[in-house]
Specification:
Layout: H1 2-28, E1 39-41, E2 58-60, E3 78-83, E4 96-98, E5 103-115, E6 122-134, E7 139-149, E8 152-161, E9 166-170, E10 183-193, E11 203-207, E12 213-217, E13 223-232, E14 239-240, E15 245-252, E16 257-260, E17 270-278
Amino acid sequence: MRRHRKRRRKKTLLAVIVVAAVVIATLLAYEAGEIGRNRITGEISDAGTGTDTGSDGTEEDGTISDTGNGTGDELAGSQESSENGTGAGEDIFFPYTSELDSLELVNVYDYSGYYIEDGTEDEIDSVAALVVTNTADEAIEFAWITLTADGEPLNFEVSLLPAGQTALVMEADRKSCSESASFSYVESEAAYLSELDMCEDQVSVSADDSGAVTVTNTSGSAIAELRLFYKNRIDTGEYIGGIAYTVKLEDLAAGESRTVYPSHFDPEYGVVMMLRIYDEE
């Protein structure tokens, strides 16, 4: 039964990646400054759903879990924010850059395929999606972006996006977006990290083609809690979804290796983004 769930999960992940690759490739093919609002439908059959977190690790679907409850009050990195600089009701044209946050909004369009911002990978139809690039010199720890489409608010959340990298982000509340909508910029807020720490002086991490991720404690001391953050990206480097998934490991003894099977980690496209180690209080 467990093996069957793994096969279904791999099919779903592959379907997500294929659809996202088509979407991004089509969108980035537009000439700079041209507004391309396309309806792109992912029609991939036999793509099962479900979760398979694996043993020896606790998976937490969603955004970075140790940075607060979504209010931004507990973000660890340096923070910047900006509000509507275009004037109420004034249209923006893509690509559009928020000057304070160094976020380039490449385009917004009508997306159909698989929804991954909450970890469900539900099949969806006509959800607003944003392609965003981090143009800062530092990695984004977490960012919120609010736009309007014909006056309707659209919210997008991004976590762990390295400097210079691009992500395909789906609207946080699964709201739709008309192809002929007029867009306005409302506000954005971002927190940055100087680096995405892999804690290489304390642990080593490896992944194999089965989707297994092995963490070894090389620090010489027990680790009370470790969190592994990961995302998936396509061959051309764009990340799929704004969220970063997490796996929590506890009580990792000195010298111990532990293998987990993160339910959303694709063997070919999965990327471990960052590790964080927490000491007991």
